[in-house]
Write a structure and sequence with these properties.
The chain is an alpha/beta fold and 306 residues long. It has a single domain, classed as TIM Barrel (Alpha-Beta Barrel). The chain has 11 helices and 10 strands. The protein has an 8-stranded parallel β-sheet with strand order 9-8-7-6-5-4-3-10, covered by helices on one side. A two-stranded antiparallel ribbon has the order 1-2. It is globular and about 50 Å long.
Length: 306
């Protein structure tokens, strides 16, 4: 287990991304995924109120609802660390104090729990003063409805400003940063996110760590992939340089007799500023693959990410 900085939370070395719950995995499949994740030693689950509002017929909150139903049926609330987020759901948009408090009540109800372990500002809100947002988050921590708060998609400067405000006002402070980072999306994390984590002493919990599935190896030149993410992957990652990187990733994975995804996550764990990467899978096979353990040398890490 890994202890998150500035907290007493001990979590697994991978955080399961709940964005698939209610999107590409229905409730039965989601329950099976959570159970398997825990069987393999996982205890850290990430979601957001906006998941999965983008699916036709959904309105947001589907992922939290499924997790809540699992918590209620499993009676294992004390065995898992649950993180969720506020700011991006259309009906609960932004980081005003009022919205943060109301959104938290919504999430607690859907999750069927009396507290959230980590509550994220899902994106920076430039229209609301940081003092107001942090006052709202602090109110939730003082009341016991939230244990810790964290930031997602924040720049180095804005995160630093938020931490200073919390310190000056004796508010709860962000303990972690969740920004995009993977072998095929290295900026701005390497120049900005890692700097934030190292200088401010918080934990780095990067998301989109598998390039929306590109790093699994199922995407090949001119191949047609049946996936809800396929169009985005093709538009964002399917280029010559990334296919060459994928070959080096596959070569390393074969050498260790593990999956591409396990190697991609191991590479991340070797990078400055990364504490625990987030990753998700919609099938048990995908989950088993990304949960495989592998230790990479510095030479191997450099070979993959030339």
């Amino acid at each position: 287990m890994i202890k998150l900085n500035q907290s007493n939370l001990e979590v697994s070395d991978i955080c399961f991304g709940g964005n698939v719950f209610g999107w590409t995995a229905d409730q039965e499949q989601s329950f099976a995924l959570i159970n398997r994740f825990m069987e393999l030693g996982g205890n850290f689950i990430d979601t957001a109120d906006v998941y999965s509002s983008w699916k036709e017929g959904n309105k947001g909150g589907e992922s939290e609802t499924i997790i809540g139903n699992w918590l209620a049926s499993s009676n294992k609330r004390d065995q898992v660390v649950i993180a969720t987020k506020v700011a991006m759901l259309e009906t609960r948009k932004g980081l005003s104090r009022k919205n943060i408090v109301l959104a938290c009540e919504d999430s607690l109800r859907r999750l069927q729990t009396d507290h959230i372990d980590i509550y994220y500002a899902h994106s920076d809100d430039l229209e609301t003063p940081l003092e107001e947002s942090l006052e709202g988050f602090n109110e939730l921590v003082v009341s016991g409805k939230v244990r810790y708060i964290a930031a997602s998609n924040y720049s180095f400067e804005r995160l630093g400003e938020a931490l200073e405000i919390s310190k000056a006002n004796n508010f709860a402070s962000y303990i972690a940063l969740q920004n995009r980072y993977s072998l095929v999306a290295r900026e701005p994390y390497e120049s900005d996110g890692a700097k934030s984590v190292q200088e401010y002493g918080i934990s780095g919990l990067p998301y989109s760590t598998l390039g929306s599935g590109f790093l699994s190896g199922k995407y090949q030149p001119n191949a047609q992939v049946a996936s809800a993410r396929a169009e985005g992957v093709t538009n964002n990652y399917a280029n010559e340089a990334n296919f060459e990187l994928l070959k080096r990733l596959e070569e390393t994975a074969k050498r260790h007799s593990v999956s591409n995804t396990a190697v991609a996550l191991a590479w991340l764990r070797n990078q400055p500023g990364v504490t625990v990467p987030l990753a998700s899978g919609r099938t048990i096979e995908q989950l088993d693959a990304l949960m495989q353990k592998v230790n990479l040398t510095g030479e191997e890490c450099s070979f993959i990410a030339v």
